[in-house]
Design a protein that fits this description.
- This protein has about 300 residues and is α/β, with parallel strands linked by helices.
- The chain folds into two domains: about 5-190, Rossmann fold; about 200-295, Pantoate--beta-alanine Ligase, Chain: A,domain 2 (2-Layer Sandwich), CATH 3.30.1300.10.
- Helices cover about 40% and strands about 20% of the residues.
- It has eleven helices and nine strands.
- It has a six-stranded parallel sheet, sandwiched between helices. Strands 7-8-9 form a three-stranded antiparallel sheet, with helices on one face.
- It starts with 6 loop residues before the first helix and ends with a strand.
Length: about 300
């Protein structure tokens, strides 16, 4: 399948382009939209890995134009040290994105995205009041601020998000309904290393020893799938918590087994047909998240 039938337009995007302003991005996308091209968006904070690459590859396969945003959004960090330490690797990111076929990389400055403070408040209780919402106050409001800005700037037909950020995906779907936006939100499966560790930009901050220790997070979740076949939900939750607590170098922040539709904790396996275990663990000072589907 050829992505572009209009040869004039094809020449203008033969190679991936780096764009820094909303005005320039809108102008380029207007040309594509005018001739009926479908636009896909992959929002990222950079420090890209194969998990991001899988999102971009899917976007490229399903759309004529693929925009990948690379922007470390300050409003979703409730910890200034975490914001300062977040890896920034734009040159390497662009090399990866060109390889997987992105059309435009949108890498704006903070001033471009926030010419003035964003006072908008998004509230999607109970989705945003549990788990990450409880431990990172203001995080999801910041996520909704930047993702909505990106949606308005790009006006995509489809937007792609990884299921590793399971709660974020649920909240973004709710925001799209709330704002009455005409786009499809596409959730994409977690991508893991061969040994099972969920890919994350934060993994680059792990030392070699911490990387080995962090593997116990996914090992525990996979072991709990088998454990759950013969044990109650409460026993399975305790199994995961005890396993993480017993691993030197890991500190459990939370593990909750929830209804995948509303993110509320469930007490019995029979409570829902869609049950997900969501976990956040500190490995050293690096905060890692993961999840596993018990019923889907």
């Amino acid at each position: 399948m050829h992505r572009f039938s209009d040869t004039r337009f094809e020449k203008t995007i033969k190679e991936m382009e780096l764009v820094n302003t909303i005005k320039e991005l809108k102008a380029k996308l207007a040309e594509a939209r005018k001739i009926g091209k479908k636009i896909g968006l992959v929002p990222t904070m950079g420090a890209l890995h194969n998990g991001h690459a899988s999102l971009v590859k899917r976007a490229v396969s399903e759309n004529d134009v693929t925009v990948v945003s690379v922007f470390v959004n300050p409003t979703q960090f409730n910890d200034k040290n975490d914001l300062a330490k977040y890896p920034r690797t734009l040159e390497a990111d662009c090399a990866l994105l060109e390889e997987v076929g992105a059309t435009y990389v949108f890498a704006p400055s903070v001033e471009e995205m926030y010419p003035e403070p964003d006072s908008r408040e998004f509230s999607y209780a109970p989705l945003d009041t549990v788990m990450e919402g409880a431990f990172r106050p203001g995080h999801f409001n910041g996520v909704c601020q930047i993702v909505s800005k990106l949606f308005y700037a790009v006006e995509p037909d489809r937007a792609y998000f990884g299921e590793k950020d399971f709660q974020q995906l649920a909240i973004i779907r709710e925001m799209v309904k709330d704002l009455n936006l005409n786009l499809e939100i596409c959730g994409c499966p977690i991508v893991r290393e061969e040994d099972g560790l969920a890919l994350s930009s934060r993994n680059t901050r792990l030392s070699a020893a911490e990387r080995v220790t962090a593997l116990n997070i996914s090992k525990t979740l996979f072991a709990s799938l088998e454990y759950a076949k013969e044990h109650s939900l409460c026993e399975t939750k305790q199994f995961v918590e005890n396993s993480i607590d017993a691993t030197e170098g890991l500190r459990l922040e939370y593990f909750q087994i929830v209804d995948g539709n509303n993110l509320q904790e469930v007490a019995e396996w029979e409570s829902s047909d869609y049950i997900v275990g969501c976990i956040t663990v500190f490995c050293g000072d690096v905060r890692l998240i993961d999840n596993i589907k018990y019923k889907a």
